[in-house]
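Case study 2.
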Amino acid sequence: MFNFDRKTIYIILAILVVMNLAQYLTNTQALLGLVLTLPGVIMAISFHEFAHAFVADRLGDDTPKNEGRLNLNPLSHLDPIGFTLLLFAGFGWGRPVNINPARFTRKHSMETGEAIVAFAGPLMNFILAILSTAIYFVLYRFAASFMLSQTGGIIALMLQGIIITNIGLGVFNLIPLPPLDGSKVLLCFLPQKAKSWFIQNEQLFYLVFIVIWISGIASQVVAPAITAMYQGLVGIFARIFGFTIL
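Prediction:
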């Protein structure tokens, strides 16, 4: 079994941040884009973690409520390192919501309950992406002159950031490797032997996760999925609102 030093992992991740930070220090346009991305990042993480807490509470576990996680206050959900990485490295996380599956009502097994709670976070991100895309096109349909103004252009960029960030966080968290939500969803569908093997080798999968992240493999897998979902959403709403050219 592997025994990872958390400080070592954080040092590796800090290197990733520094490598990506350089472009913002030398490129004013990139820095402006980063600032406009902030609302989307804060919203995506806060709603993602709230969704975990809300669904766990609805399933009968009052742990998130007792720990003050049943709210949309960003300060309750942002993890400094995960937030910084999401801004500068493209991938990150919020402060994990603690749950106690033993407190779930017996309508579902504990494993099923954990999977439902885990999936709630990415699902919330996808819902936010859909709603933000709808708002984007509503504004262009009914307030076109405003959206073509400087202020409207800033709002448009912020909405695009919200859409892309939420799609990205949702897709990324569905990768079936710990500590991501996708691993808990996957466990619910694995046969018992495979499930036991997966749990016993959890730290090995942590290592795999770190390797594919640092190597850029994760980006190569996730980026096309994000692009496809973004283009799909925009295409659907463009047709709904009668836009032929985006």
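The chain has a mean pLDDT of 86.
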